[in-house]
Amino acid sequence: MTTIGFGELKKGMRAKIAETPEPKDQVLRLYEMGLVPGTEFKVVKIAPLGDPIEIDLRGYRLCLRKQEMAGFEVEILG
Asked: Does domain 3-77 have CATH number 2.30.30.90?
């Protein structure tokens, strides 16, 4: 199992949340949106300068900044 940081994802990759940082207000809000360990998602779009990243998870799309996802580790899926 190879894990990488959220900011290293490329368009079209499928991944799942492997590790999350210590819960604090911002992280708890991401948990509420479904970004908990084990959640699978697909990278739909990446902005021209690399930030934000749009992902498709649990039937909806979410745009996230790399700064918001700092500390999240993801596992690449085949």
From this structure: yes
Is the whole-model pTM more than 0.90? no
- Nearest residue to 20 (alpha-carbon basis) of 7, 8, 30: 30
Q: How many residues does the chain have?
A: 78
22-63 pLDDT, tens per residue?
877 888 888 998 899 999 999 999 999 989 999 999 999 999
Residue 27: helix, strand or coil by DSSP?
helix
